[in-house]
């Protein structure tokens, strides 16, 4: 299954397609760097890892699924558009 082929067609899938397309467009226009995408991936993973203490409530399964989707999307954008990685400090 591709990240652009959701399993079911609920309202959240429509939102996912829109957000994926928006991230790709912003990266294509160089409004987001590869480093920005990597930072976003790290932020989503951090929320998934500690969803019980997240100030923005979400279900644990949804947070984990979001982290997986974001990692796949980040990988796709990195391969498609390239760019510099973020610096690890």
Query: Into which percent range does the helicity of residues fall?
Result: 55-70%
Strand content: under 5%
Helical/strand content category: mainly alpha
What pattern of helices and strands is seen along the backbone?
HHH
Q: Note the gap between the termini.
A: 35 Å
| Weakly predicted, low-confidence segments | none
Categorize the overall geometry. Answer: globular
How many DSSP E strands? 0
Count of DSSP-assigned helices: 3
Alpha carbon gyration radius: 14 Å
Summarize the main sheet: none
Q: Roughly what is the average pLDDT, rounded to an integer?
A: 80
Topology:
Layout: H1 11-28, H2 34-49, H3 60-81
Helix pairs in contact: 2-3
Q: Summarize this, please?
A:
This protein is mostly helical and 89 residues long. The protein has helices at 11-28, 34-49, 60-81.
What does this structure look like?
The chain has 89 residues and is mainly alpha-helical. The protein has 3 helices and no strands. The longest helix is centred in the C-terminal third of the chain and has 22 residues, at 60-81.
Keywords:
89 residues; mainly alpha; globular
């Amino acid at each position: 299954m591709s990240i652009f082929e959701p399993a079911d067609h609920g309202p959240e899938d429509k939102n996912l397609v829109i957000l994926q397309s928006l991230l790709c467009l912003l990266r294509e226009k160089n409004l987001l760097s590869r480093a920005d995408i990597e930072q976003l991936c790290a932020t989503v993973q951090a929320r998934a890892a500690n969803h019980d203490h997240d100030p923005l409530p979400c279900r644990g399964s949804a947070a984990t699924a979001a982290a997986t989707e974001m990692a796949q999307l980040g990988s796709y954008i990195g391969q498609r558009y390239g760019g510099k990685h973020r610096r690890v400090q």
